[in-house]
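Q: Here's a chain of 281 amino acids. Please give me its 3D structure as tokens.
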Amino acid sequence: MGSEDARRYAGRPIVHRHASCVLVHHALKAPHSMTWLDESIMRRRGLAQGRTAVTHSLTEALQGSYHYTIGPYSQPVLSIRPGDRVVVETRDAFEGKVKTEQDLPSRVLRMPFVNPQNGPILVEGAEKGDVIAVHIETMKPRGDNPRGTCAMIPQFGALSGTSLTALLADDLPEIVRKVDVDESGVYWSRRVTLPYRPHIGTLSCSPEIDSINTLTPDSHGGNMDLPDMGPGSITYLPVRTEGGRLFIGDAHACQGDGEVCGTAVEFASTCLLYTSPSPRD
């Protein structure tokens, strides 16, 4: 799917493959009046076919309980039609429990209950064997005084030894950094401002029978932590259950090419999505 989009897009988009998911990210302006989005598989072959979109709002109140597994057994919170938009209120990866720099994750979190997910969202017409295209349109910090959180957590991340990846070095000290965030920047310190480059860390459709924790990436999508999966990207996810059962969460204000310390700058976001199923050939 991604290679066909790549041949057609103006401006040479970047195409990533993660298991059986395909992410198409376009970072340059198209030189023609017909944009890369108009030429995408999502627009040309999606079931929406230009219908007038309805915008839904998936608030914290409507979501109720957030999910720590992705699977076919949780109760859907929303049902939408192809081409609809959804404004989603995501929580940060710690579900807001790390409120200050004194709230050490080892004390306030219960692992592996992190990366809370919104959903599942049913997309009408999506059937097993199809794909659901998810176009992330915008991502904004949420709250009156938005702050992000970055942390070093014992037994977590590539810089710390774990039961699966032992290191000879001693563990690095546990530390939390709270960071002010707005759409102009991520204010690491008085001297250092990082670029605001928001993206979604965890995006999935449901597996057919398994329920997979939200820390694990696999062919359903999951915790991919790709910094390109932000505004201006389309992710094609495989449909394995009726309606697809879309899950989304784990928003990042910025991140390098992966979460080396185990976290990005985690933040609560308001994310606008456009979705459309595309049938299999």
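Q: Can you summarize the key feature?
A: The chain is about 5% helix and 35% strand.
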